Amino acid sequence: MAVKQTGKPEMIPLDGIQTVDAESLAEVGVFADPAKRSATYILRNDQLLCLQSEVDGLELISIAEALQKYPDLMEKHYFSAVPEDTNKITREAALLDKPHGFFLRVFKGAKVELPCQAGLYIQEAGLSQLVHNVIILEDGAELQLITGCVSHQQVLKGVHHAITEQYIGKNATLTSNMVHSWGPEVTVRPHSGTVVDTNGVYINNYISLRPAGDIISKPNTWLNGKGAAARYQTVILGSEHSRIESGGNVYLNAEDSSAELAHRGVSTGGVILQEGLIIGNAPCRGHVDCAGMLLDSAGNGYVESTPGIRAHHPNAMLSHEASIGKISPDQVEYLQSRGIEEREAISMIIRGFLDADIEGLGSELDARIGEIAELAGHGG
């Protein structure tokens, strides 16, 4: 039964979501079981479908409500990590009286045990979705956030634009797991800015299951506090006719700050552009690793890896590497000699490639990598 709240749009309890919607959301790690999550935000098309938060130390409300509830938010955090004059998308978002998206805050010292989840769901073909999210972890806070962005299996075309601003306090840790699964003609433009304070840790895991037709993701991260750290782990499947650009910039602005960017891409006919630039502005450590595998060019598909490092300080220790390879026939034949079918053997090899040096994903995202390996092994 729908739940009505005075002055707010009609919403549905998490366990009341229709099966067809629940199945789409589950594909990207957003589950309709309240026992598995600390809090939930779900936007279907441009309607707030579900908003639940009952955990001490965590606040989850719509961004529109937050702007009314906390007037200083506009000045301190709203369009600060992602300036409103960045491009046409951000300028359009800045003009909205009632923006869609969520405001998430974890209070000082709170360590949230269960993951918080946000589902951004396109159910109707041809829809343009624009969201703006602000995430704040106060000093000493810890949170795992799962953001699932997905279009219904029958939705082929649409637009998804997202602005996400994240602020990680001293000794705080944010693990952000983002899973995308889009129709073949969906255009996706995430804009992300993250600021990390002293000894703060930001871990970003991005997995693309069903690639959109056109994705450009270039997040910016500023490590402004001593000992601040960031780790990006990206796993992408690029199928025929898709074009995916992933990269971004990490600014190491403080002593003993560190960053690691690991990209893994498998193309079954799509274009994958792997980038990533680490800028050392202080005594720091950083490494960029881009690895790709091209299974089928389909005439126009390719993988291009261009990791970058830039030092502005003599004690910045930065390194990078890039590799593009293929599946060895000898490996496939060896596995077949052990009684494994060819397609399964290929999937196993791809899985090993995607898992290389990617740690700490957890069982749910680990299963998603298995899905990518399965899809790629069968031709995407």
Protein architecture, described:
- The chain is of the alpha/beta class and 380 residues long.
- The chain has one domain.
- It is 17% helix and 44% strand.
- The chain is built from 7 helices and 23 strands.
- Strands 3, 4, 6, 8, 10, 12, 13, 15, 16, 18, 19, 21 and 22 form a 13-stranded mixed β-sheet that branches.
- Helix 5 packs across helix 6 and helix 6 crosses helix 7.
- The chain is globular, with a radius of gyration of 21 Å.
- The N terminus is likely disordered.
Attribute tags:
single chain; about 375 residues; alpha/beta; 13-stranded mixed β-sheet; ten-stranded mixed β-sheet; 23 strands; disordered N terminus
Q: Which residue ranges are poorly predicted, with pLDDT under 50 across at least 5 consecutive positions?
A: 1-9
Helix-strand makeup class: alpha/beta
pLDDT averaged over residues: 88
Number of strands: 23
**Element order, helices and strands?**
HEEEHHHEEEEEEEEEEEEEEEEEEEEHHH
Count of helical stretches: 7
Number of domains: 1
In helices, the fraction of residues equals 10-25%
Estimated share of beta-strand residues: 35-45%
Shape: globular
Radius of gyration (CA) equals 21 Å
